[in-house]
Amino acid sequence: MNGMESTVKGKRVFVVDAYGLVYQVFHALPPMFGKDGEMVNAVFGFVRDIFLILEHQRPDLLFCAFDLHAPTFRSTLYTEYKATREKMPDELIGQIPRIREILETLRIPVLALEGFEADDILATAAERVSQDGGTCILVTSDKDSRQLISDSVSIFSLRRNLYLDREFLLQDWGIAPEQVVDYQALVGDSSDNVPGIALIGPKVAKELLLRFGNLDEILKPENLDAFFGPKMTKRKENLLNGVETAMLCRDLVRLERNVPIEIDWESGKVENFDFRGVLPIFEQYAFKSMILKAATFAKNAELRSQPGIFDALDTENGGECRVSSGRVRANGTSEVFAEAIRDRVELPFFDGRFEIRNSENGKTASGETETLILPPALWNAEAFKRLTREMFVPKSVCAPKTAPFGNASRIGKSQKTSSGTANRSEQTVQSDLFGLFEAADAEKLNVCRKTEDVPALPDENEKQTDLFGLFEAAESEAERTAENEAERTAENEAERTAENEAKRTVKSAVESAAENETASVLPMAEDPLLRILLENREKLASDSVVKVGFDLKNLRNALRRLGLELHGPQFDVMLAAYIFRPDGKHDSLSALAEAFPEAAADPEVQAAQTALLKEIHSQKEAASESESASEETPESKKKKGTRTKKEKTPAEPHFTEFESFQRPFLRSLFQHLAQKLTDARLDRVCFGLEFPLAEVLAEMEFWGIFVQKERLAEISERFRVRIGECSEELYALVENAMREKAEEERAPDLKTKEETSFTLENVRSLNLNSPRQLQKILFETLELPILHKTKTGPSTDAQTLEELAALHPFPARLLEYRQMVKLQNTYVEALPRLISPADGRIHTSFNQAVTATGRLSSSEPNLQNIPVRTEEGKLIRSAFVPEHDGWSFVSADYSQIELRVLAHYCGDENLCEAFRNDQDIHARVASQIHGVPLEEVTSSMRRAAKTVNFGVIYGQSSFGLAAQLKIPQDEARTFIQTYFMQFPAIESFLDTVLEFARENEYVSTLFGRRRPILGVRSVRKGQLNPAERMAVNTVIQGSAADLIKLAMLRVYARLKREALRSRLLLQIHDELLLETPPEEVETVQELLREEMTNAWSLNVPLKVDVDVGKEW
After folding, report:
1. 857-867 pLDDT, tens per residue?
2. Which among 666, 408, 433, 609 has a CA at the least distance from the CA of 529?
3. 445 and 555 together in one domain
4. What pTM value is reported for the model?
5. Could you tell me whether strands 1063-1068 and 1071-1076 are parallel, antiparallel, or unpaired per DSSP bridges?
6. At which of 645, 674, 704 does a domain end?
7. How far apart are CA 420 and CA 866, in angstroms?
8. I need a labelling partner for 680 at 20 to 30 A (CA). Which of 498, 788, 790, 939 fits?
């Protein structure tokens, strides 16, 4: 005992309820996967929380208590103890050994003993620490542990960052720690299936304990008469008849404080933990933030044992490295540090040169704090950040400051390009040509040479071999293609040949320009540079000059408003970067500079950057001298003193926003990307799909779509009325619940953050948009079960409300209310503000370089998210009409395009046959799964099959399927297994895709688009992890996206070829919408069917549903 006394006396000993913490983080965090593809969200959350305790609570000793999977003494007392608890999820079971491995590697001691729960271990540890003069802090959310609170024992709530002591318990439950066991015996504990006494809730239990002190006194008949009166009430009867139950419950909830377990207190000392040993495990699980934390803990431990390595260490912040720019301050170690960086930083543009100065006068003085100035090119280099993290440089880090670049030719401003989310207004586009490349002087614009030996693009009907080797075109399909070709007219054949030849010419010209450095670089220009465009209008329209630009789609419309045209071979570096790295950022030149440092390493680019930084520095010095030389007037002092917080100094520009840097950088970027795309065999996606599509999208954005403002006003009023009706229904439901509850006992006051009470008299002040207030209504007033939790309390999201809707009408009405409010705010009220006053049309922006799968999106407004099948969505769409009398909308929608792509890839004969025979694919699948004839398939069978068709191929789990179909999870699991048994080729396809992704770390679409994929497991186990879902999703959805883009190109070219007045307006996933004059309606319908069904030759026919109407 003496050894223990010396170890814990005066120390802070933390004991963690490990399983309680594991369950919390598992349900709170989204799925996370390590490099091996296994789920690790609970592992990450557990480690994160342990590190938070170590970092912020600074324990002297720390232990983790675990439950063992064995019966305890409580199970013997009461066989139903914890019988209602759900089995541990499979996704969590596999994470427990990983957590134990990490604790063992860290040398954090684990406490567990068969026959006892972790709560008993906590009670025993707390008792021993308290007896020997230490302070014990229990990290647990289990309310049973409140009985352990004393002067030397408290509970720490991680989520609330709060210590629970006697005072807290008195305020929360109104009782003392010594009364907790009796309180819980009366109230019961549903989580452990402790029954308690029926109808005795927290309020009554508290009053009984305040009056009589303990359970034994409460249960005396005379005391019950004194409390409830002589009349027999149901509560009084339950207490009189429940004495044995109450005694049993007291035994169940009382924690054992004398568990026969040996505790090695010395092993719990934090100073003995091994933080370096766990780094390889964190690397395996891709826990980047935890690697830094563990390394920081390790370094701090070393610094404590070996002082003087860095005197400037930031002890207040745990020595955490904070590299944000270019200076690193150390004491007496500059030369050593510089040499380490020279040896270990591997960057092509870094020559290892350093300038070491004293922070004040620029001179090095022995023993003084020195500042290491790094080359500007290294400021944001990830390699440098990694290095400094490893070396644990203290926080004194700053970049050389720069002054606002007043009169420089700054361009670009702050708008996003069409690859991002912001859409510039018509007026902005007219005056600001952001998105163009650097300005080349007029005399430097060159005509590029052509070459004859550039590989040609394959004809679009050429038989393709998929990268996975999953299929080749069937012989019969090739014969059908040949027959279709024979039926084409000679005129169309000649035109199509000319189009393919044009594509070859464009590709040839661009490759030649890249090789010979003869491309014209277009300006990202403000007004001074517009002159260059106007003076070179002929070259802009030339078919022999390669135009290189950034976001050429926006440039095309800007030029159009200036009366200029952009023709001939083009190379859009934004799209090229997107195709090469679809998961990266491409919306600015600074993003491209970071993504492609080799382009920024070009000597001409480096020289331009150096000159620019010198100019910025000199201008700042000049501005500083001017400011210090000027005398402050009383007025200026007054103005300076009254500046508000909102008046912030404008952000200094990034060097990539200056034309003098852009000119050489973008030329270098063009040459690098052109080569990279060719090497990766992605040039086909560029020149055959994305580059020409930019012209189509520019045209669609230019025309826009007409919207009836008056109709939107009518719809807004209807929405307002319906929202009001929903509100009334919701308030009435709450009032009814309060009245029902008042019959049993007074309805509780519901208090918001502002201490506003809700009663029957003022319930209509309830804010239906406040999650906090809705938590009170749903889970206290209506007493609905808490299904999911967030950081701020019980979840009230759509998924939770859908599940609760089966139990009470309030959640269902709330969902309807939220949907109406969202549509009202997002569309009905917002759309009128987006209508151009010039033409009465809305000009959405189509984002071509956003989604990694290749799908298009739209913004300002996002017209793709207007609901299609709901009455509210149809109502909003009714405001979109053709502008001219007599004109119509013609829509063409690919039918089940993703399932057809799946059938094409997997080659399952049943699926292919169903599509070839134009059968209802969902009914056919239901027929095979249930083993019934097609005509006997019910609507519920078909609905279930449809859910599986669209869900399972993207990795939907049995849990997700069960929730969607509202069936037991075992039934959903059986359904999925039967599905794959009936369609084994689908499962084989999934395995082939995942195997390819695992070996090559990317997947590819039909047209050759690639997406990097990391984290695919060697063996697929049930539910797909995010990387695996991403792989399958990219192949199927990405191929469907390629098909609709090909269809757009064909439809657009055909409209131009036949000189039709109809025009493409919108693309909504698998649907195209055209505005058509009356005389062209039939022609356009047939055109759409022909071009879309022949966009690509699959193993199954493509089907297009065409519709005509006066509203969208």
Report:
1. 999 899 988 98
2. 433
3. yes
4. 0.58
5. antiparallel
6. 704
7. 20
8. 498
